[in-house]
Design a protein that fits this description.
This protein is an alpha+beta fold and 176 residues long. Helix content is 26%, strand content 36%.
């Protein structure tokens, strides 16, 4: 039987985090770098297990997106992964069900940067692809982030105007 645990930041033991990192690295392959994992650590973790086996994982990290002069309290989804032999069994949907519940309960909007192979999955769940311009606010000011714009998805109660840029907060590594 699959068990679901929602863990607040700091609640998972080091061994649990190591297992989650291994799962996520296996799912994403060599393109998943150290800073990618660090982006998921400060979030609320959704952990699916069967016995002692970790089957799936995801995180909702607090971030601030800015749009049209407004700061949006955002639940940003990171590191969603399902063990290879469990893919296609619906566990990714279970992770996202719980992640979306966290977003709706704690944040104004949800956001994520989808890998190409998962864009249809998120769209079917009601996530909307962002069609506008993206930027990041950093130490040197606001910069354009064209490379990420086509894979940003939002979960918003009210649509945002794509005529105004969507601006993420700065962080090391991948900005989105």
């Amino acid at each position: 039987m699959v068990e679901v645990a929602i863990a607040e930041p700091g609640e998972l033991a080091a061994a649990q985090l190591e297992a989650a990192e291994s799962l996520v690295r296996a799912a994403f392959g060599p393109s998943f770098r150290s800073h990618d994992w660090l982006h998921a650590l400060d979030g609320v973790h959704v952990v699916l297990t069967a016995g002692d086996a970790l089957l799936a994982f995801g995180a909702v990290v607090p971030r601030t997106l800015r749009h049209n002069g407004r700061a949006l309290d955002t639940g940003y989804v990171e590191a969603v992964a399902v063990r290879a032999d469990q893919q296609g069994s619906g566990l990714g949907a279970v992770v996202m069900d719980h992640a979306e519940n966290v977003i709706r309960a704690r944040h104004e909007v949800g956001a994520l940067n989808a890998v190409e192979s998962a864009t249809g999955f998120y769209a079917r769940r009601g996530w909307t692809p962002w069609t506008g311009h993206t930027q990041a606010a950093g130490p040197a000011g606001v910069i354009d982030t064209y490379a990420d714009a086509d894979r940003i998805y939002l979960l918003c109660p009210q649509p945002l105007d794509p005529g105004a840029a969507l601006v993420c907060d700065w962080r090391p590594g991948d900005l989105w």
